[in-house]
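Batch 3, record 17
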Amino acid sequence: MSIKLEHINYIYSEGTAYEKHALKDVNLEIRDGEFVGVIGHTGSGKSTLIQHLNGLLKASSGALYFNGRNVYEEGYPMKELRSQVGLVFQYPEYQLFEADVMTDVCFGPKNQGLSPEECKERAMEALKLVGLKEKYYQSSPFELSGGQKRRAAIAGVLAMRPKVLVLDEPTAGLDPKGRDEILGQIASLHKASGLTVILVSHSMEDIARYADRIIVMDHGKVRYNDTPKHVFTHYMELEKMGLAAPQVTYIMHDLREHGLSVTTDVTTVEEAADQIMQALEMKQ
Amino acid sequence: MIRDITIGQYYPAKSILHRLDPRVKLVSTLLYLISLFLFRSISGYLVATLFLVCIIRMSKVPLSYIVKGLKPIIMLLLITVLFNLFLTRDGDVLAHFWIFTITEGGLVTAVFMAVRLIYLIIGSSLMTFTTTPGELTDGLEDLLKPLNRIKVPVHEVAMMMSIALRFIPILLEETDKIMKAQIARGADLESGNMIQRAKSMIPILVPLFVSAFRRANDLALAMEARCYHGGEGRTKMKPLRYHTRDFVTYVVVVVYVIAVFVIGRYVPLHIWIF
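Prediction for the assembled complex:
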């Protein structure tokens, strides 16, 4: 199970004044069970990239392989691909449309051709996974709060039981608690069921905390494709691209400059705490 | 997919047409549209075609882009042509089958009507291609000012128009996004019969309406927060001013209209030469 992109190029509105080369020769592989983070400045091609993964956008040139089969070949079952690769857009709550949350979450499974009972079962499961309380299942999605709507929308994609889950800034506009809960639930789902997760985010902290690998996009090109530790050692270059490293990375650099012997490739708060404790013990 | 709708959108380029005063463009477009109905002979069409080709050239908008804008009206065009073709009884009968009769006059009317409609659309979309919505509204407001005397809220109408124009690309983009989101959830928008297809639009239309209202609400709030209170006593950052090129354009357009009228009427280049 893997997604492989070979020399993918994508050009918006080709041949007009609005022409934009959004992806330039992108080569990537996403393996089964990975948790991949995608970062990049606004307009770097992140959203364009992820829309290729389930075939919503067709590359201007290049090839996309899903489980070894070229998606762009004649007669490829796109519907099948879309039920395997679940895509949660930015602000997914704006796609809710049914009269109640339950029916809305059932929309995906229903399109997969499942029986009403099965749809309901999957919807229940998905709603539980995202942590939406049962009392909201029958209420109108338009009456929910922002965070609850977001959960319902994510459940709508999870109910299709995708093998790969792609999330485009799933926590934008949420409060810290909602953010941690949603990401935590996705991370535990990733651990428990081996779900492949691709997370686009502007929060370096979130990415550092959850991702096994980071893809850095810059002006339509893949600039880095490595583990968080390695990517964040390039924090100077990241800053030039309008990005940054997690705050703890900066703190560790400062501490080292001031004479505390800590390693600087630390990306999460827990790791940093361990490092500092060790360094202090050594000093004594 | 839906991004490809080009009708009524601004096309950024550096041309004389882009620089003209919006009032000139509005009046000229109106005159051009009227001129299309001033003649019935092929010589008139030749003059109108020549004029249109010149304008398209000058606008620096690619022809393919203009043609793409015609796509949404193909249905309308087809219906018009068919009605004219079958319902006009004039001149010799060219073909006859079952209850349908095609006459020479019908054929000529149908073809001319189609050409007229296409010219009409191209002419007016050239105006929107070369004029930003802001300019367009300013121009319209200025031209309609006299109506203020008979209590027509000209400024408000112009503002509504500019908001409507501004929202076209926004709502198109929104539609595109919602469509993609629903397709990602396995929605099938293409197959099935008419009723099924209409039904499959619900998951797109409901969120679209909700978002249109949300945006309208946000905009109203933002306008009020900036103390918008209608047109009274409102000054402009860029007041409209006529330049030499604008007067020249007026002259050129008036000359064209006279030419089309005179040539179309008195140069007897009819095509009833079957």
